[in-house]
Each structure stands twice: as C-alpha cells, then as structure tokens.
Specification:
With 207 residues, the protein is mainly α. It has helices spanning 6-27, 30-37, 41-47, 51-75, 84-95, 104-115, 121-146, 155-167, 184-202. It folds into two domains: 1-49, Arc Repressor Mutant, subunit A (Orthogonal Bundle); 59-202, Orthogonal Bundle (Tetracycline Repressor, domain 2). Helix 5 crosses helix 9 (184-202) and helix 8 packs antiparallel against helix 9. The chain is elongated. InterPro entries: Homeodomain-like_sf (IPR009057), HTH-type_TetR-like_transc_reg (IPR050109), HTH_TetR (IPR001647), TetR_C_Proteobacteria (IPR039536).
Length: 207
C-alpha cells in the first residue's frame, strides 16, 4: 500500500470539494473525484472508504470546523469563568466565522439543504460537527438554567433558539446568487444583536 500523506489527503479534499460544489452530492462520484485529484481510485479509497466518509471530511474541513472550534471554546477551562453573555458572544462569533471565509462552506451548506430530502446528506452534515457544537451549547444553557440566569427547563430548546437567532441574518444569503463579504466587525454586531434579543426573552429577569 502506498504511504498515506497529509498533503495528499488535503489535495483530495480540495478536489472533492470542487466536485461536490459543481455536481452536487448525489451526482458526484468517487471516479470523478479521483480524476479531479489526479490519483487512482484505489488511492482515493485508501484515504476515504466511501463517498459518505469523503463528504463528511470535506464538510469538516471547509464548513463545520467553525462549529467545532466554537464548541471547544465553550468547553475550555479558560472560558469557564466567563459570564453567560460573553460565552454566547464567543460561540456566536465562532458560528458565523464561516461568513468571513471563502464561502465554500456556505456553498456546501446549500448542497445539504437542497439534497437533504432525498439522501442521507443532512444526517452526514449534522454528524460532521453540528451535533458536537449543539451538545456543548446545550451544556452551557443547562448550567445557566440551573443557576437561575436563564428561564425554562429545556436546555436543548434554549440552545436551538439561540442558534436560530445567531443565524437569522445569514439565512437570506442562501437565496443570493452572489454572496457578500462580511467584516469581523459586522459579524460581531450581528452576534451582539442575537445575544441581546435572546437574553431579553430567555433571561431570568427576576434575579
């Protein structure tokens, strides 16, 4: 077996992302990816045993790594002492970090939304980082519900509500042909608005 290298793996992921973006998940094939990457199909299968595992790796590389990093920040000991507002702000900025990227992540998400109804692509996307980030956010919500800062008792619901508020201004991007470019300052402002609205609605104002 030929030696597996990180450089070759990255080349394959870059080529695969181009194929998925051009052809969609269902029409893309391992043959097409191998041709785009300039390698044999055997070499491709040495790195990724199936199209599903390849797509998940592409999504992790170009899209959900923002969510994974946001989750890691929530769990880090450095952030444990932060207040709820700061925790939510950092998580939200991590989520929307994709908006300052090269837009490949959002294009991949368009594929997921478009094909989720007739394939397992939605589940693959969710398992590639979304579940991990939502679990981390749910744990934060549970902690602050327990200490009385948040109202209600359903931490997972609070996590989903906050996530929806953070993404609210980004939803329209998926309808645009040409994606705009956002600055870090604009992203920070979007998240601040979401945090403020969430805490006004879900914050326990009796404390």
């Amino acid at each position: 077996m030929r030696t597996l290298t990180e450089q070759k793996k990255n080349e394959i992921l870059t080529s695969a992302s181009s194929v998925f973006l051009e052809q969609g998940y269902e029409r893309a094939s391992m043959d097409g990816v191998a041709k785009q990457a300039g390698c044999s199909k055997a070499t491709l299968y040495n790195y990724f045993p199936s199209k599903e595992s390849l797509f998940e790796a592409v999504v992790r590389s170009f899209s959900t790594h923002y969510l994974t990093r946001a989750a890691d920040e929530l769990r880090s000991s450095d952030n444990a002492a932060l207040g709820l507002t700061d925790k939510l702000q950092r998580f939200g900025e991590g989520m929307l970090g994709v908006m300052m990227s090269d837009w490949k992540a959002l294009q991949l998400y368009r594929i997921v939304v478009g094909e989720a109804g007739h394939s397992d692509i939605g589940e693959l996307f969710y398992e590639s980082g979304v579940r991990e980030s939502m679990n981390a956010l749910t744990a934060v919500m549970a902690h602050h519900i327990e200490n009385g800062e948040l109202s209600g008792s359903n931490a997972a619901q609070r996590a989903k509500q906050f996530s929806a508020l953070v993404k609210a201004e980004a939803d329209e991007l998926f309808l645009l042909r040409k994606l705009p470019v956002y600055t870090q300052s604009e992203v920070i402002t979007m998240v601040e608005s979401a945090v403020d609205l969430f805490l006004k609605g879900a914050g326990n104002h009796r404390i």
